[in-house]
């Protein structure tokens, strides 16, 4: 089997497990010697299309979620602060991420928006927060705010989401190595093993 050339990372900053995975995925791709392709997609759209729902919507899972996330954050050595805006409306942040992608700053914006939301507990649906994240990623906040409302950007987000669903995604984070899918932060070790064996 030929060594894979890229790893696709379908992400939505509304997902705390996506934030956790994002703190590890770049190192994993680098160690495997493959390109990492950050693919913003709308988790809410995935849930709607697949009949899935967020863990926090199930009472027992919701109670467990808080402790589980803190354990993972402690294991990874990263900050985790639940935002007051949880669950987040991430559609504006995702559209901004696609604008950032066009400017070659997609990964920088992705890291920054997830760190702001989950590392600092900030509301990523707040235009002022998004503007600060954009500037921190080396972008013009005004340009991002204008471009993210374009029909082209809206269509691209929908297309990314539809593509992920068509390929089997049902939650976030979702990773693809070619046609092979891995789902969830806790599958990152399995993804790493797969890349090492490829």
Can you walk me through this structure?
The protein is of the alpha+beta class and 198 residues long. The protein has one domain: 3-Layer(aba) Sandwich (Glutaredoxin). The protein is 57% helix and 10% strand. It is built from 9 helices and 4 strands; from the N terminus they run E-H-E-H-H-H-H-H-H-H-E-E-H. The protein has helices at 16-32, 43-50, 59-76, 91-102, 106-119, 127-136, 141-147, 151-166, 188-197; strands at 6-11, 35-40, 174-177, 180-183. It is globular.
Q: How is the topology of this model organized?
A:
Blueprint: E1 6-11, H1 16-32, E2 35-40, H2 43-50, H3 59-76, H4 91-102, H5 106-119, H6 127-136, H7 141-147, H8 151-166, E3 174-177, E4 180-183, H9 188-197
Parallel strand pairs: 1-2
Antiparallel strand pairs: 1-3, 3-4
Keywords: Isomerase
Catalytic activity: 2-hydroxychromene-2-carboxylate = (3E)-4-(2-hydroxyphenyl)-2-oxobut-3-enoate
GO molecular function: isomerase activity
Helix content: 55-70%
Which descriptor suits the 3D outline? Answer: globular
Quickly give the CATH architecture: 3-Layer(aba) Sandwich
What's the rounded overall pLDDT mean?
95
Q: What class would the helix/strand composition place it in?
A: alpha+beta
Tally of domains? 1
Enzyme class: isomerase
Catalytic activity: 2-hydroxychromene-2-carboxylate = (3E)-4-(2-hydroxyphenyl)-2-oxobut-3-enoate
EC number: 5.99.1.4
Protein name: 2-hydroxychromene-2-carboxylate isomerase
């Amino acid at each position: 089997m030929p060594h894979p050339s890229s790893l696709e990372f379908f992400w939505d900053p509304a997902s705390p497990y996506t934030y956790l995975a994002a703190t590890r995925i770049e190192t994993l791709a680098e160690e495997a010697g493959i390109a990492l392709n950050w693919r913003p997609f709308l988790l809410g759209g995935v849930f709607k299309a697949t009949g899935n729902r967020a863990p926090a919507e199930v009472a027992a899972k919701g109670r467990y979620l808080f402790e589980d996330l803190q354990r993972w954050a402690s294991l990874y050595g990263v900050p985790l602060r639940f935002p007051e805006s949880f669950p987040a409306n991430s559609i504006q942040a995702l559209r901004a991420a696609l604008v950032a992608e066009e400017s070659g700053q997609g990964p920088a914006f992705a890291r920054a928006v997830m760190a702001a939301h989950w590392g600092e507990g900030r509301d990523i649906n707040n235009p002022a927060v998004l503007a600060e994240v954009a500037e921190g990623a080396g972008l013009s906040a005004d340009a991002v705010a204008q471009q993210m409302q374009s029909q082209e950007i809206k269509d691209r987000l929908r297309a990314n989401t539809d593509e992920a669903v068509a390929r089997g995604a049902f939650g976030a984070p979702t990773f693809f190595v070619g046609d092979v899918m891995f789902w969830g932060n806790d599958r990152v070790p399995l993804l790493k093993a797969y890349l090492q064996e490829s």
